[in-house]
Amino acid sequence: MHDALLEELHQTIWNLGKTDMRTVQNIRDALATRSSTIDITLPYEPTPQEHAKLLNTFYALADKEVDLNIIIDPMLIAGVKAHVGDIVMDNSLAAQLEALRDEVTKSLETFTMEEND
Fold first, then answer.
1. Residue 1: which pLDDT band, with cuts at 50, 70 and 90?
2. Residue 116 clears pLDDT 90, i.e. is over it
3. Strand bridging mode 37-42 / 67-72
4. Strand order in the sheet with 87-92
5. Which long-range contacts (CB under 8 A, 24 or more apart) does 42-50 make?
6. How many CB atoms lie within 10 A of CB 31?
7. How wide is the angle at C-alpha 99 spanned by C-alphas 94 and 3, nearest 5°?
8. What's the whole-model pTM score?
9. What DSSP string describes 45-114?
10. Which of 29, 57, 69, 116 is the most buried (most CB within 10 A)?
11. Does 117 have pLDDT greater than 70?
């Protein structure tokens, strides 16, 4: 699961260059005026291969050398959360479970409202 979520984040970032150059440019502009350190939160210490792939991916996104500040948070369960400038990319299992919870809650509220009408 963790590997799939990590790969999904890599693909999302690489696809940004093909589908959303405005976001890519906004990220590059934000990093041009501040530290090029990207906070990466993972549920455990990355392997050397994972670290290199993250570094390569965010280097391409920023279009300059970046430093990764690795933060370990077991509450993520699996996946990764990245803070790039003011943008947060959260591809963790915890975030997906939270989104699912919100969706179910909203559906239940809608169902309850329809039943009361």
1. confident
2. no
3. parallel
4. 67-72, 37-42, 79-84, 87-92
5. 42/70, 42/71, 42/72, 42/73, 42/76, 42/79, 42/80, 43/2, 43/72, 43/73, 43/74, 43/75, 43/76, 43/77, 43/78, 43/79, 43/92, 44/72, 44/74, 45/70, 45/72, 46/70, 50/6
6. 21
7. 40
8. 0.75
9. PPPHHHHHHHHHHHHHHHTS--EEEEEE-GGG-SEEEEEETTEEEEEEHHHHHHHHHHHHHHHHHHHHHH
10. 57
11. no
Tokens of 97: 């479970």
Sign for the pseudo-dihedral over CA of 58, 62, 68, 70? negative
What pLDDT digit, counting tens, does each position of 55-95 carry? 999 998 888 889 999 999 998 888 889 988 778 888 877 77
Residue 109's pLDDT is 78
Place of tokens 């279009």: 63
The CA R_g of the chain, rounded to the nearest whole Å, is 17
The stretch 7-36 carries a mean pLDDT of 84
